[in-house]
């Protein structure tokens, strides 16, 4: 054991040396590792023997110990030959651990790693989807350039696999191959294109991830899949949702025109909208304006809304940033409630969410104002959370709530956490500067703090008062005098410097005190901090110019001290000031203007939120959190002036005929809505359902279309609005159904299968879609694996029944046509 | 070429700064990258203040602090930080779920399972399987019995059941669940977050609730849970199993549950409703000027407790740094004062209205030091059984899709959340 730990130390040491240059690939050269291990032969010898043993239990034991070594960061590379032999082991656990080992060391032992490849190739053909998937995963994780063609082939095959789980793994493998060999980009894009068409919710997130890594600029690949992605979104797993939402945000910013032109400052609208986002109102609202939102734009905004209720903070944040960046300003308000909810989460989530709220609250106070109290600070919050909350409270402060806030701040100022107390004082300063009504109140409060017992509090108050006085210097002689007295007691350099500066600036207003202060300072000059020394020099110069009779000698004395100071900044300043103010024959034209130079009106500092400069980053990103552009950050583009051709998103020509013959806005929007709210529920049936619609639309012309519109309307409302009769009735019916179906099949699931087989049966008979139906019967369970399938089945079943009753023929036709499009 | 991927590597670090586990999803990143983390940790006043996101010359480090452990992940490119943070917490949750605790010892004892889990949870830096039910199908959690059997027979945690290759129809539920006793329990747990000011008036109060479920039902049950007063729920977040549209249209929670324990919903009760505050605190804490002692006197009493007993009361006070020691007399319960952390904990128990619990006595201050500027806040914990303080009530639970009659139960409890009294 001891020798082992020695090796471990060595390794990390070696790593450190390589670190600065190349952290990422700080691998230890195998030769070196061998050398180190030679002293350790005995130890690993027994592992080798165990691996050669005929007993699985011994092998497993050995592998477990080896994985333990890897986990601790110890080097186990010399065992490679012994381990790789077991890659074909029948025992699943041994196999899995061998995989773990291979992925870790294959890069270092490329030749030997090749021995394992044929095993994976065989496993790729295994009837078990889990084995196929894991084989692909390991094969694509072995970073050995020579197998690139094999990987490419495997990915291509896997992307056509019947199992969505395997296809998901194929999407992951794309990224791995791409980073191993960027040359493969074109071929990989083909696979991405194919997988983007995939309808499984399991695949969607992973392939969009691959898209983002390999070809984020190929926005054209998204067009045809845009609507599908919007509709699948609710059912995609949470991690995929985040990736898709971020991608679609970027997409929307390139494809739609800005919805912000008209309703820029209409914050009042928020409330009413938020209460009732019924389509009706929206429509009438919109008709007044020349701007009409692209239905696809609306689709995205609408379909992401439910995700604000996700349990996953990353999803909620993703939707929030989407609303922030692409929804009309009047609709952004709904995100605040969900973001505030996240503040109940752990400190890390709070930290990120508060940062984002801080940025948002600068631009849009209104949306967070109702939650003001949720940002109140608790003494148990970590300091970083406290200061962020304080930042938000400051941003939210206005005439109406400032008195409540100031009362709250009083508690904070007394906090035992002095860093936080200091931040509160800054905050009070900012409130005073921004809200003129309370400027005096704040100033008085701060002056009271000058007699606080804690030096940090006093110092911070001085600094803030200085800034405030600079804004309205005239009427505050008393405060300045008070601060002059503080010089005797206060020791914090910044505060001393601030007081000196203030007295210098206002030396004509406090003619009696200023020279006396200079006298005291001249005495203590040598022991002051550099910061303070500079201000003493400044004070001297200003007094010399305004009151040279009293202070000439004093100033010269100070200048002499400065001349021989150890700090060159101070010597510099001294020289400069002497030349400028003390008249002699060499002094140039400038000295005439010395007074103007020193006593010029200085612009008051702007007390701004430190979050102001983060606005340009997309919210929710790493770059926003760090306030630096992280590598790989994709800039959010500005809205285009003119929207690019929206028809690129149309999937079939038939729809085009229907969707783009709008007889008014209502019609234009509703068809697309129905179209998608259907397909959200169930891939196969929805496709047939929606397709049937468009089909019949094109068949029967305008009449058909308008009659459908009405039925759509009713369905829409049941979907979208609360407690609509339609859905209640439907549900009752569904409940009634249950006992009936129970007879045939015990579960909801069974009910579903039933339904499924009906459709697939009929399509078998009616259509020639062999591929579709075969895949359905073969992997029925897989097809159904999407999350909410079963869930919505109950609600949807009736609807579909209705459709299938009325449009039996067209439904089947379309099933056919749909599979043909895919075959 | 920049290697893009979400999570590159993960390091687990204990409180004394030892890196006791590392896992890389691609090329190996040297442990020394953690030095930047240690640097940030040193700068921070305490563990709670270590920034979750750190930028280093070649990487970004995103970390969480859970159960006295740091989970430090190495990132190379732009990624939503919450994505990583949520994932790391999910990893910690999974450890907790598998080993009963998320501790260094548990992780070290089960290092092979940990590795297998990490392998399944993340592929190429992107989350693959994070649902506990799916993971348990792939990797069996350790049990004492199994480890004994394993050590004798040499079999393992990865079940032989795996080759069936059947993934469940629903991502969060195992296929083929079977119980002899079918039960469904729901715990409605509400927490009162409040800030009470010096004078006893409420600065801020709100109710946050969760419904935790423990479902042991065979097959594929389809449940719907309805409330008497669903309008109380202002803001709700759901487990992915819940059908969003059913909720939107009918305010019914309709779902096919995961097997076992899970959080069904979290909610916030609308802020229009006044929050009943079940306890009040009378306090008088004072420090004398130029003297090395102070007085401390607090009394707790019931306020709006809806006729239920308030129990499990604990008061925690972070005393100012100048406090050396406290000599107090509790009328009820017991107290401790830690002179190092300056934390006073008073374990009160339950309130009996006849004799209100109080704690009084003297505070010894460091002599010569200025008296504390502010009195410390009191953090109060309590519990009220069989009461949801918001008044939320479950109406009924129906099950579809299975024939058997399950045993159903709902339990209510109200607790103090972040309940702080300023003095």
List keywords for this structure.
heterodimer; A: 823 residues; mainly alpha; 44 helices; 69% helix; disordered C terminus; B: 423 residues; alpha+beta; 9-stranded mixed beta sheet; 5-stranded antiparallel beta sheet; 7 helices; Clathrin/coatomer_adapt-like_N (chain A)
Blueprint of the fold:
The complex is a heterodimer of chains A (823) and B (423).
Chain A: H1 2-22, H2 30-37, H3 41-52, H4 56-71, H5 80-84, H6 92-105, H7 110-123, H8 129-141, H9 148-158, H10 164-180, H11 185-196, H12 201-214, H13 220-223, H14 226-232, H15 238-255, H16 269-275, H17 279-288, H18 295-304, H19 313-326, H20 334-342, H21 347-363, H22 365-368, H23 383-396, H24 402-413, H25 418-434, H26 439-449, H27 455-471, H28 477-486, H29 493-505, H30 513-524, H31 530-546, H32 548-563, H33 568-581, H34 594-598, H35 622-626, H36 653-659, H37 665-679, H38 683-720, H39 725-744, H40 748-766, H41 770-778, H42 780-783, H43 789-806, H44 808-822
Chain B: E1 9-13, E2 19-24, H1 34-43, E3 53-55, E4 60-66, E5 69-75, H2 81-99, H3 104-109, H4 111-121, E6 122-123, E7 126-127, H5 132-138, H6 144-153, E8 183-196, E9 202-216, E10 222-227, E11 233-238, H7 244-250, E12 252-255, E13 260-269, E14 279-287, E15 293-302, E16 310-318, E17 323-330, E18 334-338, E19 343-349, E20 358-365, E21 378-385, E22 394-400, E23 407-421
Parallel strand pairs in B: 8-23
Antiparallel strand pairs in B: 1-2, 1-5, 3-4, 4-5, 6-7, 8-9, 9-13, 10-12, 10-22, 11-13, 14-15, 15-20, 16-19, 16-21, 17-20, 18-19, 21-23
Organism (chain B): Heterocephalus glaber
Domain MHD (chain B): 181-422
Protein name (chain B): AP-3 complex subunit mu-1 isoform X1
Describe the structure.
The complex is a heterodimer of chains A (823) and B (423). Chain A contains 44 helices and no strands. By secondary structure, chain A is an all-alpha fold. The longest helix of chain A is centred in the C-terminal third of the chain and has 38 residues, at 683-720. The two termini of chain A are 60 Å apart. The model of chain A is unreliable at 1-39, 263-287, 653-794 and 801-823 (pLDDT under 50). Chain B contains seven helices and 23 strands. Chain B has helices at 34-43, 81-99, 104-109, 111-121, 132-138, 144-153, 244-250; strands spanning 9-13, 19-24, 53-55, 60-66, 69-75, 122-123, 126-127, 183-196, 202-216, 222-227, 233-238, 252-255, 260-269, 279-287, 293-302, 310-318, 323-330, 334-338, 343-349, 358-365, 378-385, 394-400, 407-421. In chain B, the strands form five sheets. In chain B, strands 11-13-9-8-23-21-16-19-18 form a nine-stranded mixed sheet, with no helix packed on it. Chain B is globular, with a radius of gyration of 26 Å. Residues 157-166 of chain B have low confidence and may be disordered. Classes of the chains: A mainly alpha (823), B alpha+beta (423). Chains A and B meet through helix 1, helix 4, helix 6, helix 8 and helix 10 of A and strand 2, strand 4, helix 2, helix 4 and strand 7 of B.
